[in-house]
Amino acid sequence: MTYVLVDVHHRTHTCPSDPQPHPYDTTRTVVGLVPGGPCRQPVTIRCGDVTTTTLACGRHAPADRQCPSCRVTVTERQVRNEFMGTAPQHPTAGVAA
After folding, report:
1. Considering the entire predicted model, what is its pTM?
2. CA 34, CA 15: separation in Å to the nearest integer?
3. Distance CA 68, CA 11 (A)
4. Which residues contact 86 (CB under 8 A, 6 or more apart)?
5. Phi, psi of 72 (to 5 degrees)
6. At 25, phi and psi to the nearest 5?
7. Which of 5, 9, 43, 64 could form a disulfide with 27 if both were Cys (CB 3.0 to 4.6 A apart)?
């Protein structure tokens, strides 16, 4: 199984249209990776009439039918929330046309 360790950083703000803090930017940083190794259940698929190709099951099968080596598990190590304040109102808001 491939393990991916990530840090998540949410930037939030408030704005005139939505006074509740809400995220406007989310950054994910990969801080660790443990590869799972080669595929244990390769899948043979047909390409055209005669040609066959062998692929790793992780590239072809749905997640619940992948071998343990091809499965990916993502773990969030740290989740940060940063409030950036109130967003400025658009300069033309409230101006009659």
Report:
1. 0.66
2. 41
3. 35
4. 13, 14, 15
5. -120, 130
6. -150, 130
7. 9
User: Distance between CA 73 and CA 30 in Å, rounded?
Assistant: 13
What letter represents residue 42's amino acid? P
Q: Where do the domains of the chain lie?
A: 2-86
Q: Report the C-alpha gap between 11 and 9 in whole angstroms.
A: 7
Give me the helices (H) in 5-65, please.
Answer: 57-60
Query: Model confidence over 30-84: pLDDT tens digits?
Result: 999 999 899 999 999 887 777 888 999 988 889 899 999 999 999 999 999 998 8
Q: What are the Cα distances from residue 6, in Å, to 24, 44, 57, 79, 91?
A: 19, 33, 24, 9, 38
Structure tokens at 21: 């803090």
CA dist 22 and 84 (Å) reads 10
Nearest-angstrom CA–CA distance, 81 and 22: 10
What's the one-letter identity of residue 8?
Answer: V
